[in-house]
Amino acid sequence: MSQTFGTACLWIAPAKEAPCHLSVLSPAERIRAEGMHPAGRPAFVTARGLLRRRLARMTGLSPEAVPLTQQPGQAPVLEGHAYGPYFSVSHTQLDGRPFAAVAVSSVCPIGIDLEDPARAVDWRRMAARRLHPGEWAAIAARDEGAARQMFFDLWCLKEALVKLMGASLLPVLSRTRIAPDRPPRLLDNPIDGRRHVLALAHVRRRRLTLGMAAARTLDWRLYGAD
């Protein structure tokens, strides 16, 4: 068993505009939520509410006072906390219902991605055009069901890497190469040259795919994942 350097805690929850989440948002987050399309608002509100409550426990601040800020087109950051706690968020739809995922760690930078592998997309075209040629060859050699799941496994892991590294999506998709072992391994990473550590889970009765990436080997603890 690989040595772990600490834990990362991850929560997955149905997304709702619940008062417990709305009550801890900053004024800027409330304005942003009000201006969002109604379909996207529950996931944003739930993710921010969960995130603020978890970070509050780690920083000793009230949830409303957690200094989360976000510039347009960029990921949220925790002002004044360059060395942790670290966090990542994701959301997706399952049977038309939104779900939000939030991960936090005090150990090292992390990234997560949550996807529904049954959603209607031209995944073969995306795999052929966007993924590393070696990954596409491995996908193409499998039967339909296994190939589709492998595509979404790799996609989730690469989205998690994008969030971890703060990189652009397309170069990570096409230039990094992942071996879909158990656990998955990052074989080639010309983006920043680091051997980031990957993990994969199939949650919500195996209907959602969860990709996790970290700068070090962590013990991922999942809550609300079924």
Highlighted features:
about 230 residues, four-stranded mixed beta sheet, three-stranded antiparallel beta sheet
Describe it:
The structure is a single chain. The chain has helices at 19-22, 27-35, 41-59, 123-130, 133-140, 144-165, 169-175, and strands at residues 7-14, 68-69, 77-78, 86-94, 97-105, 110-115, 177-179, 185-188, 197-203, 208-214, 219-223. The protein is of the alpha+beta class and 226 residues long. It has a single domain (7-223), classed as 4'-phosphopantetheinyl transferase domain (Ribosomal Protein L22, Chain A, Alpha-Beta Complex), CATH 3.90.470. The protein has seven helices and eleven strands. The model has no long low-confidence stretch (mean pLDDT 95). Helix 2 (27-35) packs antiparallel against helix 3 (41-59). 34% of the residues lie in helices and 27% in strands. This is Phosphopantetheinyl transferase. One of its GO terms (molecular function) is magnesium ion binding. Belongs to the P-Pant transferase superfamily. Gsp/Sfp/HetI/AcpT family. Keywords: Transferase. It holds the Pfam family ACPS.
